[in-house]
Amino acid sequence: MLGGCNLRAMNKGKTAWVERLFAQHGTALQAFFRRRIRVAPDAPDLAQEVYVRMLRLSDTDAIRNPELYLFTVANNLVKENGVLEKRRSACEDIDDLAVQEQLAELPQFDGEIDTEQRSQRLREVLAQLSPKCRATVILQYRYEMSYQQIGERLGISTHMVKKYLSQALGHCRRRMERLR
Known about the structure:
The chain has about 180 residues and is an all-alpha fold. It has helices spanning about 1-35, 45-55, 65-90, 95-105, 115-125, 130-140, 145-155, 160-175.
């Protein structure tokens, strides 16, 4: 019985330690993520993951510099996030006919959200993209320009046009999916 009480006290102490650390550095941690990841709105989720990982530590007393440790965990998450993003964008060949058909399909929303809300959400999601990435999407879908025309207009290769479209569409699908 005494061992169980002792373990709970240690867990409460660790939780309080992690909460103090985040109270002091939470804003800086989110800024750290926003500067280092491509999808800045993911920063709060990544900061939350750092929090969870810090809570999983078995011996917080062994950490000599908690702030450095916190940002080391964050930096590792940035690297993991980059690898995942690279895998996601590499998985889809934008020239594949099946991918083209899928990209042309708009996600179905079971009438829960009206068109204006979806349009507003899409504008917000597109605003999260880099300027060239956003321009590529607009030129492709609003003005129906070819990859070649877009490349010439933006001063980029057709390969980069495809890459920007793939990244943008993946980003939009992930963000718009949250509306379902």
